[in-house]
Amino acid sequence: MQTIIILDHGSQYTQLIARKVRELNVYCEIHPYNNLPAFDKNVVGVILSGSPYSVNDKDAPKPDLWFKGKLPVLGICYGAQYMVNAFGGKVQRSTAREYGRAILTAIDSTCPLMKDVSIGSQVWASHGDTVETMPDNYKIICSTASVKNAGYKIEGEETYAIQFHPEVHHSVEGKKILENFLVNICHCKQDWTSDNFVATAINELKEKIGNDKVVLGLSGGVDSSVAAILLNEAAGKNLNCIFVDNGLLRKNEFESVLVSYKGMGLNVKGVDAKEMFYTALKGIKDPEAKRRAIGKTFIDVFDREASMIKDVRWLAQGTIYPDVIESISVKGPSATIKSHHNVGGLPDYMKLKIVEPLRSLFKDEVRRVGKVLGLKDELLSRHPFPGPGLAIRILSDVTEEKVRILQEVDSIFIEGLKQNDLYGKVWQAGAMLLPVQSVGVMGDERTYENVVALRAVESVDGMTADWAHLPYTFLAEVSNKIINNVSGVNRVCYDISSKPPATIEWE
Ligand code: XMP
Prior knowledge:
The chain is of the alpha/beta class.
């Protein structure tokens, strides 16, 4: 598969470059600038990302550009400035404002990178430095009103650079520029498609696994479900799926998802471990301690179940590309705000080899692959749901009774969203059970019962989110329905915090 290598210098936009390249049906990989793999013959071009550093900083990233002049290169922002600085030009603190919107005022239309890009097109810049003087053989290919050297080409080689960010949404023709680089300059065939991925992945899995047995933990979420059908194509009955009921799932979810899995022809065993989880969680109030208790219990259950499968050799996981990138990132694994990865690993004595069929895919690609594999819409379009489930939506300690209350509330909310055609419009929704009681009046009686908070957010990747502006009429209806139908709840709130500074889950 033709591959574009993206050198990561720590920019917040590096993943976005990769996603845009993939959207153009070209396979790409992100690697830290200081830890590049050997390039094989599939590598057809290199993109240098931006960076929070200035090239003049003492500890600025200094990649070894051994491939420059041999392969096509596109430098973006820091990448553009680095090449100027490293090869005889000058980069300085900028006097003009170079944050945000800028307009291309001049374009070299003969340059293959700028083909069909229009003068007047808006681009997005985000840098404090600027290219002051360029080395002799560098030729300007575009300018903005305040930045003459907005883009350049190095003569005699296929090296191009732009100081603005083509990967961000606000660079209106940014995708065109990336496409020009990929197609006109790197000659990419644009054959990275879901169909192709599926065909190749199944073959590779067959080769890797052969007739060995594989075990996979299903969660009901998109990633593990897609991993399962892919592996099912490759391993068939040798794939042993385990779906654990931890007692923290949504109302009736365990039963209905198990039926869907079986309907898909998966060899799946449903394991009722509710009591074990409730026991492990007893009295625990701290969110991270809850996560640990759930993670440990899951491993115990999974371990017990997996060891019952005779001669199992492989442990399959639904790891996706953002997890991989995070673990190799220039910045190192990001500081833990919440420990989101629930399965720490299996005991060593099981000696299972790991297979991760989705490790090269972004979430939206996983969904597309799922579609190609015929995964039902109802599973594909499900909102994300955290591994520790309702335990981190029940503030304070977890009991079976609290789970029951929250399941009822959540079910009314989610069903309401579906019936009102709102489910697909929000990224994630759920309900929180708060550790407070409030006074209410029902009939002539004073009540003193629980408060719940509803949360619905809009987001692209869960990293940032805004609260969903759901219609008041809908919220009023849902609130009434909850209070009238769920005994134990007499007050409903709606969470109007964005992330940051809040998070999506309350714990
Ligand atoms: P936060 O609350 O960090 O959530 O804004 C971002 C996304 O991650 C999910 N989340 C988790 N998922 N285990 C998971 O598998 C966890 O411990 C966990 N905590 C949060 C959350 O539902 C949202 O989609």
